[in-house]
């Protein structure tokens, strides 16, 4: 039986990743429960993630009805350079910042 | 329908960000390698992985592909996922088509081995629509 290796990033690595990631995939559910997704600009400052959607983005409209979302992004030059995050949370009342419930990170370099 | 967009190869792989409905009824997402063959999209995952269980519970899926030249925009593929035969996926990994990521041979071999031993499974995503998302 093999032990599962810990491939999570450290908090400084996560901070650096989020600061250099200009965009992120945002997932939500529409009124019928269908998963929907889009790309949004992302900023990270003072420990807070913020999203800016393109004008009339349909996912942003869905988030007005149900603010629960996930954000996913990675860097993937080569297999062992894959780094990324998956964020679960909800869009705050200001329609921009994220209330983060859970953040998962991964760095395939730790699999070497 | 099949994939028909400049960001989606007819044959080859791309990085997709797959959005599904999670156990708690909320959206969750995964970066994955999407394998296109003849315009059909397939993915593989460990049979016991949460994403496999989520897809078996609710087959509706959205896969976002970012434009490598401008990650502010991309396409969103809407479709339904169903378990599929593994042999086509294995053949696709050996076809020499466009590759999403430079994957070491030992990793490819492990994937093939896990598919053949049934630890991994393949889902084919029947594409309903492809639409552009993000910045215009």
Describe the structure.
The complex is a heterodimer of chains A (112) and B (136). Chain A has 112 residues and is of the alpha+beta class. Chain A has a single domain, classed as Roll (Pnp Oxidase, Chain A), CATH 2.30.110.10. Chain A has 2 helices and 6 strands, in the order αβββαβββ. Chain A has helices spanning 11-20, 58-65; strands spanning 23-29, 35-45, 48-52, 68-75, 83-91, 98-107. In chain A, strands 3-2-1-4-5-6 form a 6-stranded antiparallel sheet. Chain B is an alpha+beta fold. Chain B has a single domain (12-131), classed as Pnp Oxidase, Chain A, CATH 2.30.110.10. Helix content of chain B is 21%, strand content 49%. Chain B has 3 helices and 6 strands. Chain B starts with 11 loop residues before the first strand and ends with a strand. Chain A binds chain B through residues 22-23, 25, 27-29, 33-41, 54, 57, 59, 68-74, 76-80, 82, 84, 86, 88, and chain B through 15, 17, 19-21, 25-31, 58, 60-64, 66, 71-74, 76, 78, 100-104, 107, 133-136.
List keywords for this structure.
heterodimer, A: 112 residues, alpha+beta, Pnp Oxidase, Chain A, six-stranded antiparallel β-sheet, 6 strands, 45% strand, B: 136 residues, 3 helices, globular, Split_barrel_FMN-bd (chain B), Split_barrel_FMN-bd (chain A)
The helix/strand order of chain B is: EEEHEEHHE
Largest sheet of chain A: 6 strands, antiparallel
CATH architecture of chain A: Roll
Shape of chain B: globular
Query: Structural class per helix/strand content of chain B?
Result: alpha+beta
Named CATH topology of chain B: Pnp Oxidase, Chain A
Greatest contact between two chains? A-B, 34 and 35 residues
Fraction of helical residues of chain B:
10-25%
Overall tally of domains of chain A:
1
Task: Give the overall pLDDT of chain B as a whole number.
Answer: 90
Number of helices of chain B: 3
- The count of strands of chain B amounts to 6
Write the CATH homologous superfamily of chain A.
Electron Transport, Fmn-binding Protein, Chain A
Poorly predicted tracts of residues of chain A: none
Order of helices and strands of chain A: HEEEHEEE
Cα(first) to Cα(last) distance of chain A is: 19 Å
What CATH architecture of chain B do you see?
Roll
User: Any idea of the CATH class of chain A?
Assistant: Mainly Beta
Q: What does the oligomeric state look like here?
A: heterodimer
InterPro entries (chain A): Split_barrel_FMN-bd
InterPro entries (chain B): Split_barrel_FMN-bd (IPR012349)
């Amino acid at each position: 039986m093999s032990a599962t290796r810990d491939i999570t990033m450290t908090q400084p690595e996560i901070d650096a990743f989020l600061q250099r990631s200009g965009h992120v995939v945002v997932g939500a559910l529409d009124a019928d429960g269908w998963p929907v997704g889009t790309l949004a600009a992302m900023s990270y400052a003072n420990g807070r993630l913020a999203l800016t959607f393109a004008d009339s983005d349909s996912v942003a409209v869905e988030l007005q009805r149900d603010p629960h979302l996930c954000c996913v992004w990675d860097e993937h030059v080569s297999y062992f350079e894959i780094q990324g995050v998956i964020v679960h949370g909800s869009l705050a009342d200001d329609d921009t910042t994220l209330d983060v419930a859970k953040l998962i990170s991964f760095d395939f370099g730790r699999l070497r | 329908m099949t994939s028909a967009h400049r960001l989606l190869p007819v044959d080859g792989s791309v990085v997709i960000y797959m959005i599904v409905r999670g156990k708690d009824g909320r959206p969750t997402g995964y970066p994955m390698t999407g394998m296109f063959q003849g315009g059909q999209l397939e993915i593989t995952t460990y049979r016991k992985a949460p994403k496999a269980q989520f897809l078996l519970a609710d087959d509706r899926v959205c896969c976002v592909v970012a434009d490598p030249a401008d990650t502010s925009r991309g396409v969103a593929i809407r479709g339904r996922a169903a378990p599929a035969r593994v042999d086509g996926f294995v053949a696709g990994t050996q076809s020499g088509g466009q590759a999403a990521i430079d994957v070491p041979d030992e990793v490819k071999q492990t994937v093939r081995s896990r598919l053949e031993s049934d630890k991994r499974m393949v889902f084919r995503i029947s594409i309903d629509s492809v639409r552009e998302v993000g910045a215009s």
